[in-house]
Amino acid sequence: MRLSGWVHRVRDHGGIIFVDLRDHYGITQIVVHPERSFHRAAERWRLEAVVCFTGSLVARSEETRNPKLATGDIELVADEMTVLSECDFLPFPVAQDLPCDENVRLRHRFLDLRREHLHNRIVLRSRIVASVRDRLRRMGFLEYQTPILTRSSPEGARDFLVPSRLHPGRFYALPQAPQIFKQLLMIGGFDRYFQIAPCFRDEDARADRSPGEFYQIDMEMSFVTQEDVFAAVEELFSGLFAEFTTRAVTPTPFPRLPYRQAMLAYGTDKPDLRNPLVIQDASHVFRESRFNAFRTEVEKGGVVRLIAVPGIAERPRSFFDNMIAFTQGIGGKGLGYLVWTEDGVRSPIAKFLGSAEIERLRSLTAAEPGDVVFFVADTETRAVRLAGEVRQELAVRLDIVERDAYRFCWIVDYPMFEWDGEHRRVDFSHNPFSMPQGGLEALEDRDPLEVLAYQYDLVCNGTELSSGAIRNHRPDIMVKAFEIAGYSRDEVEDRFGGLFRALHYGAPPHGGIAPGLERTIMLLTDAPNIREVTPFPLNQSAQDPLLGAPSEVSERQLRELRIRSVLPRRKTS
């Protein structure tokens, strides 16, 4: 039998040398006896050299079996050996997943990919993609590819621009998403589309998104309602997570949470439902309170939000002091609290509250002896954020986040528009191509800030996996929606001419979604960031230390494109 691979480990046991030989499929033990001509050479091998052994495959003795290895019951007794490729000194250990500077890892990504945890994640990525394709095809979806070179759009993140040699002074853009094209496919008569779509955005790095490029499970469906999209996505994700994890998964149908309810109850539109704590509004309780700090905030138009936590009254004073410090550290003025006991309530603010107020709070929260209620008071925008972060911090410090579970939900009923305070105008809040609830009549007759849209997010364990929408398929609604956001009809035709023109030729009602592939894999593998599930990612500075991208190009290339590079002037001291 012949076996080739990388030298993972070498052990000398009294003359007999044992080599752990690793390939894509795992590790096999090679036995080299002293009488072999290549025995002495084996003592000088460097780890990660590529070697081929020929020999006899034999069963290990009972006492030498290794149950930790898939091949732990057998070994190869070597008769011949050929060194296929030598290895220089390693910049970091491959046989061990020890911490290492990320840029060093990325510069030597070919070595990093050999390390067990990363290698297994990339293999799992392939299996997940294959499963997604198989499941969607069984559901009637067909895979189509959309263009990579397209038109720049002023909406969303910054585009990556590609200069045109044949059309000097003009530029293509790499697609931020296949949004327009998948809608055009529906207008073109295709019913269910999907694509494992590359997306390109010139934005700063985040833990759940690589700077430069990432992939989406892009989907679109014709003649559907919001619930039809939900049913398809729930079938995909419930099956996918059941296949690749043993953890508990939210049963279908996933909960639907209106946006405003989610912001009130969880302080975010990406709630982690493994956390049982819920935020409540208590502004009405303090509107005429003797506690000036809260009453004054409410009088100014602010709010008071509370979080009731059962059974923690016996926590030491340091716990409460630390929570106050945490709240101040994230920009809050402080954190009030009431501790319910058998004899009433105690806290630094209890003396400012009347018995009627305390009773109203007890009734609102169903507080019992042993429970604690925390308060934040601020403007509504700040209070929402503060309460949301305090809710999560409490759950972590109290260790009450549900373990080994994936808890999904849909966030629905997003506002179609929002107020842009910086530019003093109404703007789109989510997706400008969405269908407003109530159609054209809602846009014409209602306050724009009260109009809801058929927009939705899929959230799991506090991570937004995807945004989607039922699309606007009527040109008159598109014109009116963009008019409210300050765009003229001419601007709509100029910026979105292809889609706008297509809507005049019998566009079907359609909708879709695009779950992030890397975000999904991150959840399934507990990876700390997107680079740990991507074979060749850029670093956090949007650079590729392995190949040296981005790089300078020659003057000849620039002349062919009729462009020049103008660098910022260096500051002089």
Features:
five-stranded mixed barrel; single chain; 573 residues
Instruction: State the separation between the terminal residues, measured CA to CA.
Output: 70 Å
Helical element count? Answer: 17
- Using the alpha-carbon principal axes, give the shape: globular
* Strands, count: 24
Q: List the strand order in the largest sheet.
A: 6-9-10-24-23-22-19-12
Tell me, rounded to a whole number, the average pLDDT: 94
Q: Assess the beta-strand content as a share of residues.
A: 15-25%
Sheet with the most strands, sense and barrel status: 8 strands, mixed
* Fraction of helical residues: 25-40%
Structural class designation:
alpha+beta
**Computed Rg:** 30 Å
- Low-confidence runs of at least 5 consecutive residues: none
How would you characterize the overall build of this protein?
It is a single chain. The chain is α+β, with helices and mostly antiparallel strands and 573 residues long. 30% of the residues lie in helices and 25% in strands. The chain contains 17 helices and 24 strands. An 8-stranded mixed beta sheet has the order 6-9-10-24-23-22-19-12, sandwiched between helices. A 5-stranded mixed β-barrel has the order 1-2-3-5-4. Strands 13-14-17-15-16 form a 5-stranded antiparallel beta sheet. β2 and β3 (26-32) form a beta hairpin. The longest helix has 23 residues, at 116-138. It is globular. The protein starts with a strand and ends in a 12-residue tail after the last helix. The mean pLDDT is 94.
How are the SSEs placed, and which strands pair?
Blueprint: E1 2-13, E2 16-23, E3 26-32, H1 39-42, E4 50-59, E5 74-85, H2 102-107, H3 109-112, H4 116-138, E6 142-143, E7 161-163, E8 171-173, H5 179-187, E9 192-201, E10 212-222, H6 226-244, E11 248-249, E12 256-258, H7 259-266, E13 279-281, H8 292-299, E14 303-309, H9 317-329, E15 336-341, E16 344-346, H10 355-365, E17 372-378, H11 380-398, E18 405-406, E19 408-412, E20 417-420, E21 425-428, H12 439-445, E22 455-460, E23 463-470, H13 475-484, H14 489-495, H15 497-502, E24 510-513, H16 517-525, H17 555-561
Parallel strand pairs: 3-5, 6-9, 11-18, 12-19
Antiparallel strand pairs: 1-2, 1-4, 2-3, 4-5, 7-8, 9-10, 10-24, 13-14, 14-17, 15-16, 15-17, 19-22, 20-21, 22-23, 23-24
